[in-house]
C-alpha cells in the first residue's frame, strides 16, 4: 500500500504586498526584483490572525473537502513548519483540532524548505508500513515574521501560506520513491536563530531580535548544482527517464533558479510550473500550494508522472518521484 493524493488544499493570506510596496521601505525596485527573481507580489499574513496554525488548519480543511473525507477518518497528521506560532503543542495537534481528527497520531517535522517533502515521505512510510491509512500532510510557513525588513537582499523574497494534501492508502499505487540529503558544511549561508536564544546580558546583541540570515549567492549556487544532481540520482536509482516526467514541481524560490535547473536537466521549461510570481517564496508551503493551483486549473491529471524537488537551510535538499 502507498498513499494516493486524493485531496489538495491551500490557504494564502488576504493581504498582497507588491514590489512597489517594498520599494517604499527598502532601496529596491519592481524591475530589480522581477529581473533577479521573477517575483511580482507575495501574500503577507496578518500576524495576529493568520498564524501558521490557522493557515495550516484552513489548508487541511480545504484538502479534506476536496477529498470528500471527514476529519474523523484521518489517522495521521504530519506538519512541516519552521515558523510555528507555538513551540508546543505541535502544529499537527492544532490541525487535528481544526479538522476534528480526534485521536489520530500528530507530529511536526522541520527540514526547512524541503520539510514538506520530508513530511510527505514520513507519512508515506507510515502508510507503506501499515501504520496508517489516511494521512494529512501539511506545510505552513510565516517567514515574514522572521525576515529583517531592512535587508533588501532577503526581505523581497518571501511570502506566507499553507498547503495540504490528503493521502489515502491504495494498493494500485507504485511505491513512493525519494532521496533526501543534507550537509552542515555550509549551514551558515541560511539560518535563523530562535528568538529565545539565551544570551548573556553583557554580550553584544542582548535583547536584539534575531532574524533570518542568508547569503543569497551561495544558496543560489547550491540550488542550481544540487537539485539537478539529485533529480538525476533519483532517475538512475528508480530507473525512469527524465523525458517521461510530465511535471517538475520545484520549490518556488526564484524563477532564475528554476530556469537554470530546467536547462541543466535538458527539459522544456513548460514542464516546470511556477506560482512564485504571485506568492514569492513560501518555504515549506511552496510545493503543496503549487499542487493545489495546478489541481484547480486542471493541469494535474490522474496517471501523470511527477518529480518534486526542494532545497533549503541545513543545507537540505530532496527529490521525489510519484504518479498522481
Ligand atoms: O528557500 C531558499 C531561500 N533562498 C533563496 O532561494 C535565495 C537564492 N538566491 C537568490 O535568489 C539571489 O541570490 C538573490 C535574489 C537573493 C539576489 O540576487 P543576486 O543576483 O544573487 O544579487 P546579489 O546578491 O549578487 O547582489 C547584486 C547587487 C548588489 O549590489 P552591488 O554590490 O553589486 O552594488 C546588491 O547589493 O544587487 C544589490 N541588491 C539589490 N538591489 C536592489 C541586493 N538586493 C537588492 C534589491 N534591490 N532587493
What report would you give on this structure?
The protein is an alpha/beta fold and 324 residues long. The protein has 2 domains: 2-170, Peroxisomal Thiolase, Chain A, domain 1 (3-Layer(aba) Sandwich); 177-323, Thiolase/Chalcone synthase (Peroxisomal Thiolase, Chain A, domain 1, 3-Layer(aba) Sandwich), CATH 3.40.47. It has helices at residues 19-22, 30-37, 52-67, 91-99, 115-128, 152-155, 216-237, 255-265, 276-279, 286-296, and strands at residues 2-11, 16-18, 41-43, 76-80, 105-109, 134-141, 161-170, 177-182, 190-192, 212-214, 247-250, 305-312, 316-323. A 5-stranded mixed sheet has the order 1-7-6-4-5, sandwiched between helices. A 4-stranded mixed sheet has the order 8-13-12-11, sandwiched between helices. The protein is globular and about 55 Å long. The relative contact order is 0.19. Oxa(dethia)-CoA binds next to α2, α6 and α7.
Return Rg in Å: 19 Å
The poorly predicted ranges are none
Strand order of the largest sheet: 1-7-6-4-5
CATH class of the largest domain, please? Alpha Beta
Average pLDDT number: 95
Give the SSE layout.
Layout lengths: L1 E10 L4 E3 H4 L7 H8 L3 E3 L8 H16 L8 E5 L10 H9 L5 E5 L5 H14 L5 E8 L10 H4 L5 E10 L6 E6 L7 E3 L19 E3 L1 H22 L9 E4 L4 H11 L10 H4 L6 H11 L8 E8 L3 E8 L1
The protein binds oxa(dethia)-CoA.
Amino acid at each position: 500500500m502507498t498513499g494516493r493524493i486524493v485531496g489538495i488544499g491551500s490557504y494564502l493570506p488576504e493581504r498582497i504586498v507588491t514590489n512597489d510596496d517594498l520599494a517604499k521601505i527598502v532601496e529596491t525596485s519592481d524591475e530589480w526584483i522581477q529581473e533577479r527573481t521573477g517575483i511580482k507580489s507575495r501574500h503577507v499574513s496578518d500576524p495576529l490572525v493568520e498564524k501558521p496554525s490557522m493557515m495550516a488548519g484552513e489548508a487541511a480543511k480545504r484538502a479534506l473537502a476536496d477529498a470528500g473525507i471527514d476529519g474523523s477518518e484521518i489517522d495521521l497528521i504530519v506538519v512541516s513548519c519552521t515558523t510555528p506560532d507555538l513551540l508546543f503543542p505541535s502544529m499537527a495537534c492544532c490541525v487535528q483540532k481544526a479538522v476534528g481528527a480526534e485521536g489520530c497520531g500528530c507530529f511536526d517535522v522541520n527540514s526547512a524548505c524541503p520539510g514538506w517533502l520530508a513530511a510527505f515521505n514520513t507519512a508515506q512510510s507510515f502508510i507503506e508500513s501499515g501504520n496508517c491509512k489516511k494521512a494529512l500532510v501539511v506545510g505552513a510557513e510565516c517567514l515574514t515574521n522572521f525576515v529583517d525588513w531592512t535587508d533588501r537582499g532577503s526581505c523581497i523574497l518571501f511570502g506566507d501560506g499553507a498547503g495540504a494534501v490528503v493521502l489515502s492508502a491504495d494498493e494500485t499505487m507504485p511505491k513512493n520513491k525519494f532521496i533526501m540529503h543534507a550537509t552542515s558544511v555550509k549551514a551558515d549561508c541560511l539560518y535563523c536563530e530562535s528568538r529565545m536564544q539565551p544570551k548573556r546580558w553583557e554580550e553584544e546583541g542582548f535583547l536584539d531580535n534575531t532574524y533570518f540570515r542568508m547569503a543569497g549567492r551561495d544558496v543560489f549556487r547550491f540550488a542550481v548544482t544540487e537539485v539537478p544532481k539529485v533529480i538525476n540520482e533519483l532517475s538512475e536509482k528508480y530507473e525512469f527517464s527524465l523525458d517521461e516526467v510530465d511535471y517538475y514541481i520545484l520549490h518556488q524560490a526564484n524563477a532564475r533558479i528554476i530556469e537554470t535547473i530546467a536547462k541543466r536537466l535538458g527539459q522544456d521549461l513548460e514542464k516546470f510550473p511556477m506560482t512564485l510570481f504571485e506568492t514569492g517564496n513560501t518555504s515549506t508551503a511552496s510545493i503543496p500550494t503549487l499542487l493545489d493551483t495546478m489541481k484547480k486549473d486542471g493541469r494535474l491529471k490522474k496517471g501523470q508522472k511527477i518529480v518534486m524537488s526542494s532545497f533549503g537551510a541545513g543545507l537540505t535538499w530532496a527529490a521525489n518521484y510519484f504518479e498522481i
